[in-house]
Amino acid sequence: MASTWVVVADTSRARIFAADRPAADLVEIEDLTHPEARLHEGDLTTDRAGSGKNTGSVSFPMGDNTSHKEAEATRFAHEVSERVEAGRVSGRFQKLYVIAAPQFLGLLRKHQSSATRQLVAAEISKNLASQDPRAIRAHLPDYL
């Protein structure tokens, strides 16, 4: 039987847990970090007039309505969603719980494939990314 995955995330950290049985404890299988999310907006931009910092292959012109912090959060949500999608495609889980800071939860939803969304058993809009597995498990149903 494939396990249940629990993704717990905010803009700077995402942890993926697995539970092999419905009443099992959570076992952390991956910890993704995105330190750029902790930087101040000014640290993500340059002093050059006319454009912001080139982060990866995308540059953000000044006056763009998207802040650099928002762009970094979007980038990380995409990365987290790709990891979850790879797990789904390889059959590593059949049920998914997503616990994320409210705004980040919305970003994760945008980046999930429709096939992954069909496996989501529940979403919890809370920032528990830094909590220990036992505290996270307490927010989930007794039987996953």
Radius of gyration, CA atoms, in whole angstroms? 17 Å
Task: Detail the poorly predicted runs.
Answer: 46-63
Number of domains: 1
Overall pLDDT level? 85
The largest sheet is: 5 strands, mixed
Biggest sheet: strand arrangement: 3-2-1-6-7
Helix content: 25-40%
Hey, roughly how much beta strand do the residues contain?
A: 25-35%
Name the CATH architecture: 2-Layer Sandwich
Number of helices in the DSSP assignment: 4
Output the CATH homologous superfamily: eRF1 domain 2
Number of strands: 7
Order of helices and strands: EEEEEHEHHEH
CATH topology: Nucleotidyltransferase, domain 5
Q: Mind telling me the CATH class?
A: Alpha Beta
Shape: globular
Structural classification: alpha/beta
* Straight-line N-to-C gap: 13 Å
Question: Any descriptors?
Answer:
single chain, 144 residues, Nucleotidyltransferase, domain 5, five-stranded mixed β-sheet, alpha/beta, two-stranded antiparallel ribbon, 4 helices
Characterise this structure.
The chain has 144 residues and is α/β, with parallel strands linked by helices. It has four helices and seven strands. The protein has helices at 68-89, 102-111, 114-117, 133-137, and strands spanning 3-9, 13-19, 27-33, 51-55, 58-61, 93-100, 120-125. The strands form two sheets. The chain has a five-stranded mixed sheet. Strands 4-5 form a two-stranded antiparallel ribbon. The radius of gyration is 17 Å and the shape is globular.
Quick recap of the structure?
Helix content is 28%, strand content 31%. It has helices spanning 68-89, 102-111, 114-117, 133-137; strands spanning 3-9, 13-19, 27-33, 51-55, 58-61, 93-100, 120-125. The chain starts with a strand and ends in a 7-residue tail after the last helix.
